[in-house]
Amino acid sequence: MKTITLLLIAALTLVSCDNDDDSNTPTSETTVVGTWQLTHVYMDPGDGSGDFTSVTSSKTLTFDADGTVSSNTDMCIVASQTTSPTSGTYTTDGEISVDQCQNITLDFQLEQNTLMVYFPCIEACVEKYERL
Fold it and tell me: Options 2.40.128.270, 3.30.2130.30, 3.40.50.1980, 3.10.20.70; which CATH number does 34-131 get?
């Protein structure tokens, strides 16, 4: 009886072992690192009737693995089309601090290949980006 019990325990132990090679390396779908193209802007006039509007824009954001972020336009202004590049840093908690913006922190949220950047507006204002 002891032999059967020991064999059963040994068999269960071997079967329960998992040979997954779980890597902690984020995939492109779970990391913000890369270049993003502005595609939509959300502006609300204050009555809740706002909606995302498709935009034709050359604005891009580039997130680097070292925690820096840069844009080919002004990150301090929603849907800016200026040619003044800006840069800053970001956290994995979803915050962007832009060097050229005084006392402004932008929030961002990543959902697969869509990046949402939230500006500190009185009424809601959001930029939506797609991964390039």
Answer: 2.40.128.270
